[in-house]
Amino acid sequence: MSRRDPFAQAMIERTVNVMEAAEMISCSRAHAYRLLEAGEIKGYYTGYRRGLRVIERSVEEFVERRKEEAGVGG
Q: Within 10 A of 42 (CB to CB), how many other CB atoms are there?
């Protein structure tokens, strides 16, 4: 496994499904898909049964960026 391979890196990171990511962000599932398409959060497809997986850390980083932009601490 290469350290520079983003897919290989994602395989060892915790992931959530799109609905869980939306709950973490407090947005709709449709908006979470838009964030994925825009590259604001990162995810990948794992096949039919598990579908799209979102890298949990990318969601946490997104929330932190939004808090900083809004001037909210924590």
A: 20
